[in-house]
Every structure is written in C-alpha cells, then in structure tokens.
Amino acid sequence: MPSIIHLEEKDSTNTYLKDLLLRQEVEEGTIVIADFQTGGKGQRGNSWESNKGENLLFSIVLYPNTIKANEQFIISQVVSLAIADFLKKFVDDITIKWPNDIYWQEKKICGILIENSLTENNINESVIGIGVNINQTIFFSDAPNPVSLKQITGEEYHLKTLLEEIRDTILLYYKQAVSENRAAIISHYKASLFRKDGYHLYNDGEKDFSARIKDIEPNGLLVLETDEGIERKFAFKEIKYKI
Ligand code: BTN
User: Fold this and answer.
1) Are 132 and 180 in contact (CB under 8 A)?
2) pLDDT, tens digit (0-9, with 9 covering 90-100), for 29-80
3) Among protein residues, the one whose CA lies closest to atom 16 of ligand 1
4) Residues lining ligand 1, CB < 6 A?
5) How many A from CA of 112 to the centre of ligand 1?
6) By three-state DSSP, how is residue 114 classified?
7) Tens digit of pLDDT for each residue in 115-127?
C-alpha cells in the first residue's frame, strides 16, 4: 500500500503534497495527513477550520493520465462518491452537494479541494485535499453549517482506522473510473445528490430564484430548470445554494 505521511502541524496538506511532488517521486495513492493546519485551504478562497487532532485533514495524490482535461469532473465524482459511501456506513441522510461537498441532512460534514495539474489534453497529477469533520463538537468559524460524525452519533472515532478505509474506498472508485466504467459512477453520483428532487432556492449573484436540478453535464456544469421552465447552466463559482 502507498505510504501515509503523518505531520503534526503544517500550513496545508495540499500545499505540502504539491511541494513534495516537485522535489521527488511520490507513489500514486500516497497520503499526507496533518493533526493541525495553520492555513487549511477551502474552496472559493475560504479557509478550512479544524481543531487539533479531532478531524481528518489529508491530501492524496493520483495520476489520472488517461483522463482527459475536459473530463476532469470525474475525479470530483469519484472522490465525493467514495466519501459519501464511506460515511453512509455510519449515518443515514448523506448526500453530495454539487460539485463535491458532502452533506448530512442540511449540514456540511466534509469538504474537498481538488488541485489538478494538466498537460495539454490530460490530467497530469491530481492533489485531492479532504477535510472530514469527525470528532469535533464545537465549531468557531463563520462556516455556516458544519457538522461532525460525533455530533450526529455521539460516538468518538479512531482517525487512523477511518483514514485507511477512506483511502481504500477512493482507490476502488478511482480504479473503476480509470478502467472506463464511468457510466456507473456518473449515475451513482447523480442519484446521491443533495436536493436532487423538487424545487429549491438558489442565488446567481444577483437574485434568488427557485429551480430544480435537471442534470449535471460531463464537464461538471450544473443544469437547473427554474420554476418558470427556463433551463440555466452554472459553473461552480456562478451559483450558491440557499441553505
Ligand atoms: C471546502 O471548502 O469545502 C474544501 C475544504 C478542503 C479542506 C481540506 S483539509 C485537508 C486539505 N488541505 C487543505 O488545505 N485543504 C484540504
């Protein structure tokens, strides 16, 4: 099995792993995990909050050279599904909030930050940063709706055991994606979506509107149909869910 590099404290496991890749060869599937991050990075330029030693904060490297640059959304789907499936062993009501947040009911239990480096047409390396809230029970930042596994079940979890299970699940789904069996992953992803049915409120940066999820395009665009029957497509930064 690829190695797990354990660090007590770092700015960000994604940054550490990307620096390591510049300096030496790193086996696919290698993980860097930290007890604490001083500059944990989130999506949209946000930071990622976690108490020391209470949650899973790690990054894993993949080399999906056979996946085309314009198909890179499959990596988001693979990782989201793997984590969602893993969490479903412990709790119900786990969904994937497009593109790759993992939710329990209306709250966020896991965030994923994927940093791909591309060659002309393909993905060269993919550094996938994952923060799963496990044992933390009080959150201080202004993140609107965090939740941890312990808050849901009342139980305390052994982080190392969980990490190995998540890694194995990610590699399993990844293998499936690489071996071209992508249709199953894509339909499983769509079936697991947060708010997949019915009309809900969204904001496009100008106004709130009510819409339903119609589809997710292979390139990752979210396709909505407004309650007036108009189809609208959005990239990640162009829309917010009203939670
Ligand atoms: C999000 O905003 O939802 C993405 C959060 C990703 C956080 C993880 S924690 C481990 C890895 N290292 C980072 O700096 N960020 C990711």
Assistant:
1) no
2) 999 999 999 999 999 889 999 999 999 999 999 999 999 999 999 999 999 9
3) 129
4) 12-14, 37, 40-43, 46, 48, 57-59, 101, 111-113, 129-131
5) 6
6) strand
7) 999 988 999 999 9
